[in-house]
Amino acid sequence: xxxxxxxxxxxxxAAAEPLLLADEARHNLILGVAxxxxxxxxxxxxxxxxxxxxxxxxxxxxxxxxxWNLALARPRSDDVLCELVETIDAVPGVTAATPxxxxxxxxxxxxxxxxxxxVVAQGIYALERVVLPPRPAGSCRDADERDRPLIRAWLxxxxxxxxxxxxxxxxxxxxxxxxxxxxxxxxxxxxxxGGEPVSLAGAGARTPNGARVGPxxxxxxxxxxGYATSLTAELSQRLLDExxxxxFLYTDLANPTSNAIYERIGYVRVCESKELRxxxx
Length: 281
Description:
Blueprint (H helix, E strand, L loop, with lengths): L1 E5 L2 H12 L7 H12 L8 E7 L2 E8 L5 E3 L5 H10 L5 E5 L2 H13 L1 E14 L11 E4 L5 H15 L7 H11 L6 E7 L2 E11 L3 E8 L9 H15 L4 E7 L3 H9 L3 E13 L1
Parallel strand pairs: 4-5, 10-11
Antiparallel strand pairs: 1-2, 2-3, 3-4, 5-12, 6-11, 6-12, 7-8, 8-9, 9-10
């Protein structure tokens, strides 16, 4: 078995796709982010890829865009994880589906005298057909540059509430806004009621056959009226109509309300995922 360290996203994807596409939903994070690195150079200041091969076939893959966690694919065997742990120099943590995330962390921490702290446990969901919910008052529209201040504020609120462990700096936040406002690479949609925006949903990184939905945010005072449910359903249907075979999204497993909402519109849990951070013992 050999492990190769790559910095060319196109070469990595071309070699790793047989492994990654065997379970596209499970690997949507790696596929999506690597696709962004390939198609929009400069989006991430730095990107590293690792590919494990056995008899010429891909048996393991991982990537990292510092300062973010290592993203890990499901390996063909535990031996693959051992080779990756020995080859990769330093990462702040690992994000992947279970059980591979735990197996990698166990080997990494044993080799480097670290402890793995759980940051968040998530569900990875996939949708192939939308089940339209009862429609609330209002309608959906694409956001544009006029909405930038509002979306910026809502993304900050979303991070404070749901992603306190993963905050974008000002530059990173503006980069996301640039990518999704008036850009072919992503979209932000707003639900309006009475001409006033009341909910936000976005879609960004694409995979070969799918698109990831998120974030989804409704201000607390507007919740419970079905805005986010309908907005997510309409955005998901749009992505399917535009040619995606699947839509993916991540949910916080500690929030059963949001999990149930997505299931009602057709999302099915594919697997569970964890974000782990490595700390000194």
